[in-house]
Amino acid sequence: MAAPFDHPGWIFELKYDGFRARADIWNGKAELVSRRGNVYKSWASLREQLGRELGDHQAVLDGELVVLDADGRSLFYDLLRRRHPPIFVAFDLLYVDGEDLREIPLLERKRRLHALLPEESSTLLYAQHVIGAGRALFDQVCALDLEGIVAKVAAAPYRRTGSRSRTRITHRRRAGTSSSSRTADNCSPARFRVSGNSFRSTR
What we know:
By secondary structure, the protein is of the alpha+beta class. The chain is about 20% helix and about 30% strand.
């Protein structure tokens, strides 16, 4: 059995339930590209806003298209059925203004990403992280009934999904069970099994 962990060489972010996407920003315009390399034709207003907010730069961002409720929980089916416009959660920066960043350490890429993004935006969200304290973040995720956390090696270069430098630790509540009725036991390490680089609930 595997469990959430602490390690000074890893960072931990919230996990979002949405569509993985790359945002390509060129000459004041934005293009959203799927994990498989397909260009998203939907969400024109989001693309226009991204182009305006980052229009002074040429950049490639890695992130997730998500719809969030008022408490920050992912609403995947609202995204899937186009019930609400998504936002772009940015968690990595691959390229900016002629500089390829993929081989520099993740923490430095995130520092550059944070400096690039506007401080306030209704469509663009920086994926915050903590260093080393995976267990504490996971406890908060369980308490708030969020999706899970993602653990990443702080010094790692950029690699696509599936790299050993990234681990997903997910929390799923039982179908039909509200967060208010779920007990702390549902988030105990024994409820999770390892599958490849992912921790999945045994429920």
